[in-house]
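Sample entry (257 residues):
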Amino acid sequence: MKNLKQFYWKLTSRLELFTHTVPLPFAIYLGTIASGLNDKNQLIMVFICSSWASLTFVIGSLWRYFRLQYFFKKMERFESSPNSDLEEMLSFKLKLMRYPYEEGIVIVLRWICGATPALFHTAYVIGFENARLGLQILPFIIFMIAPLSFMAYFFITENNLRLLLQRKSLLDLEIPVGRIPRFSYYTRIILTVFSLANLPFTLFSYMLYAVVNGYLTVQNPILHIFILAIMFSLPIAFVTYVLGVSVKNGIDKVSYT
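Predicted structure, serialized as tokens:
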């Protein structure tokens, strides 16, 4: 299981580093400055949201470990038994190829199941009237972050998964064309562009909604705009990079086969 632990920690560190350095700080920062709370309640909100984020991190990491453990045990059995059933091996390889989708779906569920109770928990502690604006921003935050997180987790997982798919037990196992999961590079580029363009569009839609209805008054707006601009640049640079790596690896594979 040494290979499992190495692969698990490598994949987990990359996935969670993205979440905890890009979308999570952005969501918490936006929630605090746009919620109209005083300093004390902002600290309460940051603490509660960080606690729920830690809980979803633990649950997501445990799920990932047991899912990868299943894959590694299967591969070890196939490699130790040369007469393994071909259909079972094909089914296993297909599951492995679909694993990046699973990571993408799980991170979306983590955002929904983490941000929603976190904000309602905050509202319960500080009072629902005080947290009214914070609750209104919830759908905007999820709609802003979920597509970006899905694409980032898909690309990061897929790039790391190539190491497993190149193992001897799977490398020469040819899957019929009709059974290969379809997610073309055209579709990937379109969804990536949408997830990136969705960030400023959703943010400014919320800002317009809040200002028009008199919900939002922000002190030092230039400072916040500058901070948000820096935060915007991080996901744009990162997701663009992992998309480029994914496309390059795909082109290299076609070129050398």
